[in-house]
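User: what does the whole thing look like in 3D?
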Amino acid sequence: MTRTISRPPATENEVALGDLSRSFGFLLRMAQVQIFEFFFEDLGQIGLRPGEFSVLWVLHLNPGIRQGLLAQALRIKRAHMTKMIRNFEDRGLVARAVPDDDRRAVELRLTDAGVAFVDDHAKAFFSHDARRPTPLDPQEQAQLFALLQKYVGITPEERR
Amino acid sequence: MTRTISRPPATENEVALGDLSRSFGFLLRMAQVQIFEFFFEDLGQIGLRPGEFSVLWVLHLNPGIRQGLLAQALRIKRAHMTKMIRNFEDRGLVARAVPDDDRRAVELRLTDAGVAFVDDHAKAFFSHDARRPTPLDPQEQAQLFALLQKYVGITPEERR
DNA sequence: TATTGTTATACTCTATAACTATA
DNA sequence: TATAGTTATAGAGTATAACAATA
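Assistant: Here's the predicted 3D structure for the full assembly of 320 residues, as structure tokens:
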């Protein structure tokens, strides 16, 4: 018979997680918390937020994209996207246009200021991964990325 | 000179993501959204939420653990943990005790009802991973888990 | 009737700082 | 002085449903 734990653990590493340490959702959450922590440590001062920059970046690569498709591609709810885009509009980073062929839709593109914003921050944003301390060696890191890409159904694109 | 995209994409897969498809944070978020979607589809009806169950599970394995250590181990902010624990207390799942040797601290343990709750839901929770549809084969899945465990600094424990 | 985007509302999770009671 | 937990408040992100305009 296995003895049950009789004394509470005194340090973080002594906390028993059991099967939780094999739960995909739990592992993803732990990794994400860790990453966010370092992201804000690294880039917090320049007022860059990951979700926000992702949207601007995708607008940069896909000028004229419809709002709904943008939301779908980044898995952001449409109602939330509306708010984000209005915020960008208020800051003069994004312009909206209603196309003639479908007057329900909204086509989005960066303004000149929006392009400048993305140009200014892209390097810091994308080089952040390399600055992040990690216990994985480069090969493991590449493998982790490849598996995640396959899992979420993203084909890695050529660098641009 | 590379031509810029002249026409907006019409389907999700035509949306260019560029370097974003190589961003660790972005990949983690996409994976997590996907997982949550299926989690609630699979287990939403029984009123189980992943964060909530994780806390109860860890209390099950570590009876008498201090609230702060619990929060630290699961990377939940202390202020938020206070609310979660009060909610559990209100539902009769968790009991709090102030130890004599440090009267600032709070030791937590499941009540009988809490133990019953965990027993009732553990199987559904932990078998969820296996039900989730995934494009990865078992070996890739195992590798992904191992890399994530290493990344977040969790040593997988013996099954219990 | 179905679709695109908007509005309104609410809930979860997080962040921060000030507070208390103990140490 | 420092620590454990609490309270209060704000913000981000998400979920839902009802809605208007258009297809």
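In plain terms: Residues 49-131 of chain B form a domain with the Arc Repressor Mutant, subunit A fold (CATH 1.10.10.10). Chain B touches chain A through 74 residues (CB under 8 Å).
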